């Protein structure tokens, strides 16, 4: 398997681990989600271009559209959290206690 | 010069480790922008100039700008960086160590695992731009979104429209 694909898949796994492990800010997890989308875009584009699948160069564009929608909804939620609590600290989200 | 794409992909992974070790989001956003630029370079080295431009314009110029001013709105007084907190620094160093050990393992020769051959020279020798010289592949992929992929276009447009309504509804205060 070529080196470059392994590096990009490793980058996806690194941002997946970063998404799942919270520290203080919720915004950092949203940034790691965007990193996952960027690595998927890069991998899709490289595979479509290197294997000369001309028609599937549409797939990275569609992926980017869906990533933009997801980022918009995530940021809207973050804005509401920031309006209610002042900052986007994860420790403020403690209404559900079970 | 032959290995420039490999070095770019290693720096891409280092940028990912940089924001995945969770410093303050200001520095995380900067690291994501650097990784986006390097990803654009990797895509362009395989002949995808349109998709590299899409990364810069749409992803960095659109989405990262929105993330940038949202971060500026919800940030703290003393943002913590990679050198100010030992947790972030150690996470960064562990990731860096893993990447360097993977690179050295790859460069040490060819390995085989269940039929997959790692570490050969297959990925680095750039085959010439053979065959499709009169058809620009990535431009025709973007153009086929309007002809063959019309249903993709319709669904993507509908999803963008609905997500505007979702954002408006979420940010409306309900008491």
Descriptors:
heterodimer, A: 98 residues, mainly alpha, elongated, B: mainly alpha, 2 domains, two-stranded antiparallel sheet, 2 strands, 3% strand, transmembrane helix (chain B), electron transport (chain B), transport (chain B)
List the helices and strands and how they pair.
The complex is a heterodimer of chains A (98) and B (175).
Chain A: H1 3-20, H2 26-50, H3 58-85
Helix pairs in contact in A: 1-2, 2-3
Chain B: H1 4-20, H2 25-45, H3 49-73, H4 86-107, E1 111-113, E2 116-118, H5 137-143, H6 150-170
Antiparallel strand pairs in B: 1-2
Helix pairs in contact in B: 1-2, 1-4, 2-3
Explain how this protein is built:
The complex is a heterodimer of chains A (98) and B (175). Chain A is mainly α and 98 residues long. Chain A has a single domain (2-92), classed as Helix Hairpins (Orthogonal Bundle), CATH 1.10.287.3510. Chain A is built from 3 helices and no strands. Chain A has helices at 3-20, 26-50, 58-85. The termini of chain A are far apart. Chain B is mainly alpha-helical. Chain B has 2 domains: 3-127, no CATH class; 131-174. Chain B is built from 6 helices and 2 strands. Chain B has helices spanning 4-20, 25-45, 49-73, 86-107, 137-143, 150-170, and strands at 111-113, 116-118. Chain B has a two-stranded antiparallel ribbon with strand order 1-2. In chain B, α2 packs antiparallel against α3 (49-73). The longest helix of chain B has 25 residues, at 49-73. The radius of gyration of chain B is 21 Å and the shape is flat. The model of chain B has no long low-confidence stretch (mean pLDDT 85). Chains A and B meet through α1, α2 and α3 of A and α1, α2, α3, α4 and β2 of B.
The overall average pLDDT of chain A, rounded, is: 91
State the share of residues found in helices of chain A, binned by percent.
over 70%
First and last CA, distance of chain A: 46 Å
> Which strand-content bin applies to the residues of chain A?
under 5%
Give a brief rundown of this model.
Chain A has 98 residues and is mainly alpha-helical. Helices cover 72% and strands 0% of the residues of chain A. Chain B has two domains: 3-127, no CATH class; 131-174.
């Amino acid at each position: 398997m070529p080196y470059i694909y392994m590096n990009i898949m490793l980058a996806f796994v690194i941002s997946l681990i970063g998404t799942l492990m919270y520290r203080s800010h919720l915004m950092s997890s949203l940034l790691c989600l965007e990193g996952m989308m960027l690595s998927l875009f890069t991998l899709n584009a490289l595979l479509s271009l290197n294997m000369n699948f001309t028609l599937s160069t549409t797939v990275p564009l569609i992926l980017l559209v869906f990533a933009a929608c997801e980022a918009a909804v995530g940021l809207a939620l973050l804005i509401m959290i920031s309006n209610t609590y002042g900052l986007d600290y994860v420790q403020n989200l403690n209404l559900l206690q079970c | 010069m032959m290995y420039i794409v490999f070095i770019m992909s290693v720096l891409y992974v280092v940028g990912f480790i940089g924001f995945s070790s969770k410093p303050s989001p200001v520095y995380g956003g900067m690291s994501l922008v650097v990784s986006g630029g390097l990803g654009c370079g990797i895509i362009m080295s395989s002949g995808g100039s349109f998709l590299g431009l899409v990364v810069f314009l749409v992803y960095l110029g659109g989405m990262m700008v929105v993330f940038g001013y949202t971060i500026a709105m919800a940030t703290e007084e003393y943002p913590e960086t990679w050198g100010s907190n030992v947790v972030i620094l150690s996470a960064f160093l562990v990731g860096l160590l893993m990447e360097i050990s993977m690179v050295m393992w790859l460069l040490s020769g060819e390995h085989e695992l269940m039929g997959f051959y790692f570490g050969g020279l297959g990925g680095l020798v750039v085959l010439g731009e053979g065959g499709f010289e009169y058809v620009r592949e990535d431009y025709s992929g973007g153009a086929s979104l309007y002809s063959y992929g019309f249903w993709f276009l319709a669904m993507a447009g509908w999803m963008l429209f609905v997500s505007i309504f979702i954002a408006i509804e979420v940010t409306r205060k309900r008491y």
